[in-house]
Known about the structure:
Keywords: Membrane, Transmembrane, Transmembrane helix. By secondary structure, the protein is an all-alpha fold. The chain has 3 helices and no strands. The chain has one domain. The longest helix is centred in the last third of the chain and has 23 residues, at about 30-50. The radius of gyration is 13 Å and the shape is elongated.
Amino acid sequence: MKTLLWLFLLPGDLVRRQLGISVEQDGGLIRSFINMCVWGAVTLLIALKYYG
Length: 52
């Protein structure tokens, strides 16, 4: 389960690290926004492939 959670949060965590922002400074906002964009795009591409 930890691996799945780590994978799910990875895109936002990578961006947060590249920006040099700590977890305490971030408050989850940057990570949440990036994760929402990445996984939303992945879901959209899958939906368009199978239902479009």
